[in-house]
Amino acid sequence: MSTHGLFQALQLQSVRVENKLTKTLICDGEMPAAQPGQFVMAWLPGIGEKPFSIAAKEPFSLTVAAVGPVSEALCRLQPGKRVWVRGPLGQGFALQGHRHLLVGGGYGAAPLAFLAGEIINQKEDVTVCLGACTAKEVILASVFDRLGCRIRLNTEDGSLGERGLVTASLQAELTENRPDAVYACGPTPMLSAVNVLCAHFEVPCQLSWEAHMRCGLGLCGSCELPKEICEAVGLPKGWLVCKDGPVSHSRVTHD
Ligand SMILES: Cc1cc2nc3c(=O)[nH]c(=O)nc-3n(C[C@H](O)[C@H](O)[C@H](O)COP(=O)(O)OP(=O)(O)OC[C@H]3O[C@@H](n4cnc5c(N)ncnc54)[C@H](O)[C@@H]3O)c2cc1C
Ligand code: FES
Description:
Elements: E1 8-17, E2 22-27, E3 39-44, E4 48-53, E5 56-57, E6 60-65, H1 69-76, E7 82-89, E8 99-105, H2 109-121, E9 125-132, H3 141-147, E10 150-155, E11 162-163, H4 166-176, E12 181-185, H5 188-201, E13 205-208, H6 227-233, E14 247-249
Parallel strand pairs: 8-9, 8-12, 9-10, 10-11, 12-13
Antiparallel strand pairs: 1-2, 1-7, 2-6, 3-4, 3-7, 5-6, 13-14
Helix pairs in contact: 4-5
The structure holds flavin-adenine dinucleotide (FAD) and FE2/S2 (inorganic) cluster.
């Protein structure tokens, strides 16, 4: 399935509960052309359309946190119901080197689980740093564990893993276990902090950004990354999250 601008109806095969707000919707179709970090526009007639990272391509899956009208409606879907998707869209992650460090905050873990699976298939090293406010908000840790990743967990209240922000684990890894590249997905402040740390340690990083999207195809301009972020990360002004991203690649190159 590679529909880009056209919608395709997929039937829900099963639903896995990740935590109180988050579910993984496992569909009956596949998206063989999808790359980790790419996204789809998911549409429910009469409710709306929003972008979601591809969490797995076979079977096609999305991990959705219920925070508003579209995401709540998606999380209410029962097996047998349909969701309309167009994609895969955007530019995903590209593997650099052989020692890979993944950093995820919240549902940012979803595209990283897809990425970790691809890295493990290539028999390369992968460490995952996952962060959340509390233990209840950590998602997909068991998926990374089953894949065979080395995992570091951070919660802000210390209820699981080390107390503090996920960037504390990132800093420790950059110091003690220097990776060839860092791949991150999560809230904007986390991505900005990852960018600063990776620049300091001269490790290339790939960051998956979020923005308000309408067309998802580079036509409407609603997903332009703010100027300050473009300047901080070294991206040209007017960088579109849907077409040029969602993943940005830092200019640092690894020898
Ligand atoms: C490239 C890309 C990939 C994305 N991937 C995913 C994904 O894999 N899983 C996923 O669940 N979402 C993902 N999103 C976010 C998703 O597109 C929607 O923005 C989100 O589901 C909210 O849409 P809504 O219509 O349900 O609620 P909205 O009406 O858009 O939002 C409701 C309220 O919740 C706030 N809000 C939005 N997101 C969050 C959040 N994460 N936590 C807390 N509050 C929030 C909004 O600011 C608003 O106040 C992605 C976005 C982008 C751009
Ligand atoms: S969503 Fe329309 S240009 Fe990106």
